[in-house]
Design a protein that fits this description.
By secondary structure, the protein is an alpha+beta fold. The protein is built from 4 helices and 4 strands; from the N terminus they run H-H-H-E-E-E-E-H. A 4-stranded antiparallel β-sheet has the order 1-2-3-4, with no helix packed on it. The longest helix has 25 residues.
């Protein structure tokens, strides 16, 4: 019998609590959209807006970091008409191109190539090639040494 009484009392209490809520909801015919409800919450709790700004700033910083981890392309070229060390006119053309990338670990990987063409109007010796061409291709992987890694005084630049 006491279980039945508790059930009746809790049901009655629940009904009494729900009646004012449904009456207050019935007094407001307008419904809020999702955006309006969020704006009301942000207006009530301004710290949520600050958190939103911090999230946006973190997104921008992430884009900045990811852009430094992308591929980097460089190219250079030149033409030169000058006197050589022996006083004879010389024409030089050169070109250089490279592509590299910084990995998340801080290491760098890349490829570079260069071409140089030199033509002197006077050949000093038949043993020296004229015109001369030079082609060079380099592939590299540069890894950071872990010097000071894990030592906060070293990473902050404080020398004891």
């Amino acid at each position: 019998m006491s279980l039945c009484r508790r059930t009746i009392l809790s049901t009655g209490l629940l009904l009494l609590l729900l009646i004012p809520v449904s009456a207050s909801a019935a007094g407001k015919p307008d419904r809020l959209t999702y955006v309006q409800a969020l704006q009301n919450v942000i207006n009530t709790y301004p710290t949520l807006d600050i958190a939103r700004l911090q999230v946006e700033q973190a997104r921008q910083e992430l884009d900045k970091v990811e852009s430094t981890l992308g591929w980097s392309l460089a190219a250079q070229g030149g033409l030169n008409h000058d006197l050589s060390a022996f006083g004879s006119p010389s024409d030089v053309a050169d070109a250089l191109a490279s592509i590299d990338r910084t990995l998340r670990s801080g290491d760098r990987v890349g490829v570079s190539g260069s071409y140089r063409y030199e033509d002197s109007t006077v050949a000093l010796s038949p043993l020296l090639p004229n015109p001369s061409e030079n082609l060079k291709v380099d592939m590299f992987y540069r890894m950071l040494f872990g010097q000071g890694r894990g030592n906060p005084r070293y990473t902050q630049g404080i020398i004891a």
